[in-house]
Structure to design on (647 residues):
């Protein structure tokens, strides 16, 4: 029970943090504070990127127009803020690859992976800053739409006609249909700047702090010390999602505690019953020469063993349920929606079902709690047993 | 005459029930010598089991002294009394009181594990004891798989586990048929001889009384009569279920 709840709880938070990573990709995103901003590279888009056909180039322009960029010099200022571990600039723009509209991300490959989860390269290689040959990395979806592979040459430009030649060095898995859109491409920062016609401009500066605990304080420090910028953190972006997970977590914990208490009383009751049934046995033990301490130890050991066996069996059942639950809820969600569907909707969950996470910590915690409760619940009955007068105990029929 | 093993001096025991104080025993004086077989008889409620419990160190007197092998039990702490029971006394009960979840041999080993006897020696001694009570072939049986007589013999082997000098029995034949009861008594008498033990029984059973060297009759918490071997023989108490003497006692 406990294990299932723990794994559900951990599962949902993992799900949510996975989501945050896809949304934001970094702990802090610094953007131009003077214009409406969007969290992260692609966060503004609900659901799948889908085919690029639906997006008009002009629309992208409107979203990421010249007004909301930052000068590259800000990167250095951000890097100097105390508590900042690493920074990486990005220019998000739109362009056309072989005539298909897409998001173009200009990044600095030397720092990019330090602050984000990086790109999940499927074939070929990641961009290299030393590559002077106009390298480009395409999402696997986009590459197959364009019918190009690693080694192909594509034409990239701000309009559907014309542009410069780029060399496809790799493809990457978008990871999900959410996050960095399924149809997107990464180029080196200067290349993106020239396509966008925004020299020395960036749209986002990704920041990693020295420790996760510093995130919110560093973010406010950046916002307050550097004029004209706003630092968004994962929490400000997805506060609602976090609250949801938090509530779920609390809910699971409360149910778990109730189950634990019920289990504890179960052990106490079982032990007390067994002691009254075995009163004469206790008398016999004392007659044979067992001291009070030894009787206490015998019954404590028994409670401990009951706890251990119970927790062991519970963990096994818990593992089985945790493994089975995502499948069960997945099919349930498809037909009934309900809780799992609701969650999928709220969080934009990718698999449309409950996710559970069995960690070693969860397993040990469940086992430990089970044994601890068993042992604790054995203390009082064992104490009662040891205090029994041997004469009275022997007389018991 | 051999040495005195058990001696009581004005031993008394009273229980408090609410405000009432009930005297179970008062002014008990007795002496039991090494190697003797002694029966304590009396009607129920007479205090005979209380007397046995005092001798066995399961209970402490509220007055007087109980001296076993020179040690005054009334001066011992609870843990010291436990050690005394472990080392010096073996108990057998009317309903055997074996651990139902343990095999015969494990039951015999149990008191040895309390006495911290090495595992190997436990097994050797338990095997030897089961052989002595004629149950070597039943070593791995559970109590529920054995007859009453067999269970009681396992209980005897268990009582002897730590080589006690005194064996106490509270109605040891009370739940046995006469054949098993006779066999048990013969076994106990032969063990006593081999081991120089003192046997003390609380009993109603003429079969037991007939095989004792002395009998104490207890009534209302006092010893009312003492019978010698000669008295027992002359009372012709035998296996014919002649209750004359017991009737005389009551």
């Amino acid at each position: 029970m406990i294990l299932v709840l723990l794994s559900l709880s951990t599962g949902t938070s993992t799900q949510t943090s996975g989501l945050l990573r896809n949304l934001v990709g970094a702990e802090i995103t610094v953007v131009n504070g003077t214009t409406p901003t969007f969290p992260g590279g692609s966060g503004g888009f609900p659901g799948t990127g889908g085919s690029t056909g639906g997006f008009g180039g002009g629309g992208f322009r409107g979203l990421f127009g010249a007004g909301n960029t930052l000068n590259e010099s800000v990167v250095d200022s951000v890097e100097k803020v105390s508590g900042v571990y690493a920074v990486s600039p990005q220019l998000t723009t739109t362009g056309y690859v072989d005539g298909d509209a897409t998001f173009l991300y200009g990044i600095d490959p030397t720092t990019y992976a330090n602050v984000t989860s990086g790109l999940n390269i499927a074939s070929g290689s990641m961009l290299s800053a030393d590559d002077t040959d106009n390298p480009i990395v395409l999402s696997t979806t986009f590459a197959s739409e364009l019918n190009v592979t690693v080694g192909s040459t594509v034409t990239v430009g701000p309009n559907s006609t014309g542009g410069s030649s780029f060399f496809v060095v790799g493809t990457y898995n978008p990871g999900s249909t959410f996050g960095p859109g399924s149809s997107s491409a990464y180029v080196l920062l200067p290349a993106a700047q020239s396509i966008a016609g925004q020299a020395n401009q960036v749209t986002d500066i990704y920041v990693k702090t020295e420790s996760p605990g510093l995130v919110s304080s560093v973010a406010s420090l950046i916002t307050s010390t550097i004029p004209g910028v706003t630092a968004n953190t994962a929490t400000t972006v997805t506060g609602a999602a976090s609250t949801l997970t938090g509530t779920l977590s609390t809910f699971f914990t409360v149910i778990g505690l109730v189950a634990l208490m019920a289990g504890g009383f179960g052990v106490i009751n079982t032990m007390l019953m067994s002691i009254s049934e075995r009163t004469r046995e206790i008398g016999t033990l004392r007659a044979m020469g067992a001291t009070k301490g030894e009787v206490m130890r015998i019954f404590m050991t028994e409670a401990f063993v009951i706890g251990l066996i119970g927790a062991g069996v519970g963990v096994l059942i818990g593992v089985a349920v945790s493994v089975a639950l995502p499948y069960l809820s997945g099919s349930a969600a498809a037909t009934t929606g309900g809780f799992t569907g609701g969650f999928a909707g709220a969080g934009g969950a990718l698999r449309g079902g409950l996710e559970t996470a069995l960690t070693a910590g969860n397993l040990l915690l469940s086992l430990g709690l089970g044994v601890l409760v068993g042992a604790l619940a054995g203390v009082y009955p064992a104490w009662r047993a040891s205090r029994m007068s041997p004469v009275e105990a022997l007389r018991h029929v | 005459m051999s040495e005195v093993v058990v001696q009581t001096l004005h031993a008394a025991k009273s229980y408090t029930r609410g405000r009432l104080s009930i005297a179970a025993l008062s002014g008990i004086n007795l002496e039991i010598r090494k190697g003797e077989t002694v029966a304590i008889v009396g009607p129920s409620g007479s205090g005979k089991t209380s007397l046995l419990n005092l001798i066995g160190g399961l209970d402490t007197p509220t007055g007087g002294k109980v001296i076993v092998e020179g040690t005054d039990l009334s001066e011992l702490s609870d843990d010291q009394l436990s050690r005394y029971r472990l080392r010096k006394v073996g108990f057998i009960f009317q309903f055997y009181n074996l651990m139902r979840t343990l095999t015969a041999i494990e039951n015999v080993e149990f008191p040895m594990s309390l006495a911290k006897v090495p595992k190997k020696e436990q097994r050797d001694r338990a095997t030897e004891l089961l052989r002595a009570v004629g149950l070597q072939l039943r070593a791995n049986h559970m109590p529920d798989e054995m007859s009453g007589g067999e269970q009681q013999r396992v209980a005897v082997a268990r009582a002897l586990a730590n080589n006690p000098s005194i064996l106490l029995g509270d109605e040891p034949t009370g739940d046995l048929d006469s054949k098993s009861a006779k066999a048990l008594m013969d076994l106990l008498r032969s063990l006593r001889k081999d081991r120089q033990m003192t046997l003390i029984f609380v009993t109603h059973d003429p079969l037991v009384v007939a095989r004792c060297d002395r009998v104490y009759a207890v009534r209302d918490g006092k010893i009312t009569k003492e019978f010698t071997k000669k008295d027992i023989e002359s009372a012709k108490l035998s296996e014919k279920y002649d209750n004359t003497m017991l009737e005389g006692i009551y």
DSSP finds nine helices and ten strands in chain B. Residues 149 and 177 of chain B are 8 Å apart (CA to CA). Residues 237-242 of chain B have pLDDT under 50 and may be disordered.
